Amino acid sequence: MSETSKTALEQAEQEGKYIRKVRSFVKREGRLTKGQAKALEDNWPTMGLNHQDGLLDFTKVFGNDNPVVLEIGFGMGKSLVEMAKNAPNTNFIGIEVHRPGVGACLMDASEAGVTNLRVYEHDAVEVLADCIADSSLAKLQLFFPDPWHKKRHHKRRIVQPEFVENLRSKLKIGGVFHMATDWENYAEHMLEVMTAAEKFKNQSETNDYMPRPDDRPLTKFEQRGHRLGHGVWDLMFERKV
Ligand SMILES: C[S@@+](CC[C@H](N)C(=O)[O-])C[C@H]1O[C@@H](n2cnc3c(N)ncnc32)[C@H](O)[C@@H]1O
């Protein structure tokens, strides 16, 4: 959100006007399983991060200066935990609004014994704006974001010009924004937004999509899609300046 629109929104809110913000998610009140609830209780003190604590100090949080990868909307966290397990010298931060997903992720993470992962249960747009320092991230990941199929819902898609501009400032120069989707129309939308965004360079030699890099684990859902002949599109853009 630009400073002007943010100020206008804040002013309207102070005046008691109700402004509906366009969000990329609908908060579902899914029930926690016993395992998820226990994982949250046991692991939140070591792995949970709170939006209201503001700007993060990565060195303090992780106890080292390893590169930091941030994932937006990790779902149940399966691929995020696997990535963290496979790359112990990289730090991972996951953001997800769906509480059962956060619980499931913490359950897997503690079973896998990973120590290089922290999570937020909050809107990623706000976490990025308020908690992540500029030019601090090695990589940003957005895997299979909600596609919002219907045309009238396309404004809810998280990949929008303003969002990617804000996100660029959080990457280090040379840092990469990696997206993946199984919805062709969303892949085209991502490519259009990212190609128009100056100061990003497409890493694809053909200036469109990339083969899935080995470090992005193949999800069960994706394997099934492959068998059914469905496509998956990976897009990787680097921060130029
Ligand atoms: C279709 S799911 C994909 C989950 C996972 N990345 C995967 O590949 O299985 C999209 C997820 O993004 C989350 N999400 C959407 N908008 C978000 C936001 N602004 N902040 C945090 N999470 C968000 C949703 O709650 C949902 O779990």
TrEMBL record:
S-adenosyl-L-methionine binds at E71, E96, D123, D146. It comes from Pseudoalteromonas piratica. Its EC number is 2.1.1.33. HAMAP family: tRNA_methyltr_TrmB. PANTHER family: 3-DEOXY-D-MANNO-OCTULOSONIC-ACID TRANSFERASE/TRNA GUANINE-N 7 - -METHYLTRANSFERASE (PTHR23417), PENTACOTRIPEPTIDE-REPEAT REGION OF PRORP DOMAIN-CONTAINING PROTEIN (PTHR23417:SF14). InterPro entries: SAM-dependent_MTases_sf, tRNA_(Gua-N-7)_MeTrfase_Trmb, tRNA_methyltr_TrmB_bact. This is tRNA (guanine-N(7)-)-methyltransferase. Catalyzes the formation of N(7)-methylguanine at position 46 (m7G46) in tRNA. Pfam families: Methyltransf_4. It is an enzyme of class 2 (transferase). NCBIfam families: tRNA (guanosine(46)-N7)-methyltransferase TrmB. Substrate binds at K150, D182, T219, K220, F221, E222. Keywords: Methyltransferase, S-adenosyl-L-methionine, Transferase, tRNA processing. The keyword Methyltransferase applies. Pathway: tRNA modification; N(7)-methylguanine-tRNA biosynthesis. The keyword Repeat does not apply. The lineage of its organism: Bacteria, Pseudomonadati, Pseudomonadota, Gammaproteobacteria, Alteromonadales. Belongs to the class I-like SAM-binding methyltransferase superfamily. TrmB family. GO terms for cellular component: tRNA methyltransferase complex. GO terms for molecular function: tRNA (guanine(46)-N7)-methyltransferase activity. It catalyses: guanosine(46) in tRNA + S-adenosyl-L-methionine = N(7)-methylguanosine(46) in tRNA + S-adenosyl-L-homocysteine.
